[in-house]
Amino acid sequence: MTVDEAGAGQLGTDTGHRRYGSAGMTVKGVGGRLIRKEDDRYMRGRGQFIADVRLAGMKDVAFVRSPVAHAQIRGIDIPDTLRHAVFTAGDTDIKPIRAVSGLAGFKVSEQPPLATGKVRQVGELVAMCLAGTRAEAEDIAAAVSLDLEELPAVSDMLEGRKPGAPLLHESWGDNIFLETLVDADLSATARTAPIRVTREIRTARQSMAPMEGKGVVAYWDSRLEQLTVYSSTQMPHIVRTGLSGCLGLDHGRIRVIAPDVGGGFGYKGILSPEEVCVCWLAIKSGLPVRWIEDRREHLIAGTNCREHHYLITGYADRDGKLLGIDCEATVDSGAYSAYPFSACLEAAQVASILPGPYDFPAYRCKTYSVATNKCPILPYRGVARTGVCFAMELLIDAIAREAGLEPHEVRLKNLVRPEQMPFDNITKKHFDSGDYPECLRRAVAAIDLPAVRDRQKRGEPDGRLIGVGVSIFCEQAAHGTSVYSGWGIPMVPGHEQATARVTPDGGLELRVGIQSHGQGLETTLAQVAHQVLGIDPEKISVVHGDTGYTPYSTGTWGSRCMVMAGGAVTRACQEIARRAARIGAWLMQTDEAKVTVRDGMVVGPSGSVTLGEIAKVWYLRPQDLPNDADPGGLETTAGYKPVRDSGTFSYAAHATVVAVDTEIGAVEILDYVIVEDGGVLVNPMIVDGQVYGGTAQGIGTALYEEMPFDEAGQPLASTFADYLLPGPTEVPELRIIHMETPSPYTEFGVKGIGEGGAIGPPAAIANAVNDALRLLGAELCVSPMTPRRIVDAIAAVKESGARRAAGDAA
Fold this sequence. Notes:
- The structure is a single chain.
- The chain is α+β, with helices and mostly antiparallel strands.
- It has 20 helices and 32 strands.
- Strand 12 (215-221) and strand 13 form a beta hairpin.
- Helix 9 (385-403) crosses helix 10 (407-414), helix 9 packs parallel to helix 19 and helix 17 crosses helix 19.
- It starts with a strand and ends with a helix.
- Residues 5-24 have low confidence and may be disordered.
């Protein structure tokens, strides 16, 4: 028996056109541009999100939150008439949230779901209030008074590193969650390198801002003695594990259901104290309980990300060849270690991924994860890669200016070459495949660099300055056991599993433990199954996001789903094909070795039988089955890990042209090109959507989004009037060019590509802005590059020039 992978021969370099199989038929399997199945319910308003879950007798929760960043709790005053509706830490037996890392030197923080002793961030939960509506619950919360003795706050990570800084966790003796060091001897390189360039680079804190905030509905099922939790989460099985630890319940007594989720971006990947509190209250009250996050709660009290500081030095020879990198990186980790990724995820990754796609011989990087009186951090789309790409790519441009070369020329001298693949870089990252130089060359050609340089020479009629910038990066995705086990965090991925079941009418049901929050997984997993079995995707349903129905999974994160869940679906469908082939061969009275499974049929030398007909025999006419039919029937659960599970490496080059108004600091993106290689694309149209959305977020990182805090640790952006997001007028029409280099380790050669769009824009746009300002002598090494920062940078150069002129005159 053979399983026909129809359409696999069509997998080549995608040029943006629709793919076709034989006889001009649209490909529905791997490589097909199918419209997303889930969009039908979304576009008709039939999606079900947390706020749509309404249960009889349901109550709403509002929280009393700390108004200050750091304080001892001296008392909580609750009016006697409201005492029955207000619950504090002393009323509960909830255990604290612990996200521990096994990395040497990591310091443990325990996050009480309701504050005990003191508060360590604005918005920290102090009490929960239960009422018939959210408005009534908020009125109750407003009647509760807190007696707080305010303490000095740590609002800046660099200040928090210094001796004598106020301590968040007194038992530590400092504010450092973790230090890491990758060290090689750079002394000879530092002494002899012809070019030495140092930059201080800083990125701002950001909020994830999904369309749907977090939310949870919980109730206790007294018949099953089980807690049922509806949560807007991208990791339902991990949330169940976290709840089990905090509530002291066996896993089997907790069922977590993730309905439709309106965006995740990592924010829906952590266990939040609100989830723990609502679940405890549902058990305590015996009633369904709901909490829906409002936007102010999301901005000031949830979790943030991406606040990095780099002091980085690059060494190179005169022709731009990199000789070494030396870096000290600091990451603001907030007040607590968020479950399950832990506070060290960003900084610990910085040291290992800073080299990016470049090949050079000497490297040193020391990192600090610093506790501050801000909300915890989490792995936002791109995780640490956006920050390290920003730092590394700004440094490469600075080296190019010093060497008198075009920036892309310096990159081409240092990128890993295709003939080196697979390649282990200086931090032992194993690049599976790719042609990085070709990717960059295509981006530079598409942006038409010579034409941009000519335009710069001519000048603009309106006086604006034109700049061109590029960035290139790699996106490690689908991290496996070999990567996460070394970090020792509460979540280590293993074999991803999928259950496949042929229904009595010949349809197919897939059950997977991942959760879709915008990636189109109900469509792409159906395409994978179609590739193996030939069943029409319209007859394939994907059940996901429910711990009661699906195999265990660490969930949706790190661009892992098409590699891991897609691989598991492939293996399960291959097993279904094997079993169906035996039955089909028996029904056709032919040798099993002579049949093929394709197009939803078992095809023999002189006939065929459909999978629907085989299903009817299995379910309804078992007397017609062969004696040696597999007793597992047409349902199976299969697990999958890639041949090498250190991750796939997608990559992309971003190139952009901007216009900078030097009077008001405004930046307009005139052109934007992305050349990306995500391996074999299961659905190129969905990939385009992922890249478009990620790039919009990256533009926000580059130019608009910032979560500032004052010296007292007070967040200064509490609404979208303060926290700026790019809209349709700020995001240009993007041009995407696909390359497809299959991974040698995965099913169909797929790679993860969900985060790449968000990684490259800040660096490319910053390099373009700096290119525009270079004749003025101004340079920005901070994101976002707001109009005020641009104007200040230009003014600083003018002021410095004026001082020099005055000195010369004197």
